[in-house]
Specification:
about 70% helix, mainly alpha
């Protein structure tokens, strides 16, 4: 197994390289980059910000010349800016260098986990990621844990009681929850429990309270989970359906096979048949979907929830950076999420062998 893990780790490098390369080319060639963003800031008459960045003084007579400008620039909205100003902005963002130079510079920096500084937020990208990472990890881990702890036992019970009243009404509840958008349910929770029109039981924003550092160890733990209740509930509500039904159908498929009938004929108890034989075979397809489910919850699923509950996580950071064309933050968050996804794929394969020792990836 160790040789297989080493091979998979080595495959992470070209896979990560291909993903970063494709996204770099698409993003770099798309209109509306940071230079266009800065030009838009100037055209919006925020001349003081542009002067601070370019080092010019809008009070001098040259600023009047700058408004006359050069309309031959390839940037949209660049008319009204002197070519020297545009060149200064390009130099500030590194766009004075050819595309291939920027690409290889980025790769070398990323190999050393040097993500540079944010173009619009100030400060290093690593500090921004480290600051936001605990929020995304908290939402992702607790949501995934709760969904799996509830969906798998529920799916098994639904398979055992297939066609019963329990199976029918639980399916109705599950699909009703699945049909409700998570952000809409989050707003409902805020109205109901976070100082809306009814109760004010839970905090509305942040991962911890403002006085968290002054609390005792037990108080910090309680405060942390108290802040997690509403956002995790909003993310969990729609996550049961697919996993529960996948578990149920997987178990139903296995229960009807010949080896289960043989085990029952030998006089084994139903629990021994279910958890000693059926479980490890039925769980393989569920384990296969774990990496994509975790990444989906970790990033895509948490984006709207982070926005609704004012949680500054990686999902919200990546989304805002995309709107601002903050390339260092965009590519860094992509790099982090891709790396996590690839590692989770390896973890999934290891989990295969733990559930069913008969699976041997190393011999393939």
């Amino acid at each position: 197994m160790s040789a297989y893990i080493i091979r998979r780790l080595l495959l992470v490098i070209p896979t990560l390289l291909a993903i970063i390369t494709i996204n770099f080319i698409i993003v770099q060639l798309a209109p509306g980059g940071p230079v266009d963003q800065m030009i838009a800031i100037y055209q919006g008459h925020d001349a003081s910000m542009l002067d601070r960045i370019t080092g010019n003084n809008s009070a001098d007579t040259g600023s009047q010349e700058r408004t006359i400008g050069d309309s031959s620039s390839s940037y949209r909205g660049a008319s009204g800016l002197m070519a020297e100003d545009i060149a200064e902005i390009e130099k500030m963002f590194g766009f004075d260098k050819p595309l291939h130079v920027r690409y290889f510079t980025m790769l070398w920096d990323y190999l050393r986990f040097d993500f540079g500084d944010s173009l619009f937020r100030g400060g290093s990208v690593v500090d921004l990621i480290v600051e936001r990472l605990p929020i995304s990890i908290s939402l992702g881990i607790w949501t995934t844990l709760i969904v799996y702890l509830i969906s798998i036992p529920l799916g098994i019970k639904k398979a055992i009681k297939h066609g019963s009243h329990f199976d029918i009404w639980t399916s109705s509840l599950i699909f009703a929850g699945y049909a409700i958008p998570s952000f809409l349910f989050a707003i409902f929770l805020i109205i109901l429990f976070a100082g809306g029109s009814f109760f004010n039981w839970f905090p509305l924003r942040g991962l911890v309270s403002s006085n968290w550092s002054e609390l005792s160890t037990l108080g910090k733990i309680v405060d942390y989970f108290w802040h997690m209740v509403l956002p995790v509930t909003a993310m969990v509500i729609g996550g049961f359906a697919s996993l529960t039904m996948l578990t149920k159908n997987s178990f139903l498929d296995e229960i009807s096979k010949q080896y289960v009938m043989t085990a029952r004929a030998k006089g084994l108890e139903e629990k021994q048949v279910l958890y000693g034989h059926v479980f490890r075979n039925a769980m393989l397809i569920i384990i296969a979907g774990f990496p994509s489910a975790f990444i989906g919850i970790f990033f895509t699923g948490s984006l709207l929830i982070e926005t609704v509950f004012s949680l500054d996580g990686l999902g919200l950071l990546g989304f805002e950076s995309t709107l601002q064309r903050d390339y260092p933050v965009m590519f860094s968050t992509l790099y982090v999420f891709t790396l996590i996804g690839l590692v989770m794929g390896i973890v999934s394969d290891v989990a295969y062998t733990l559930v069913d020792p008969r699976i041997d990836f190393e011999s393939r």
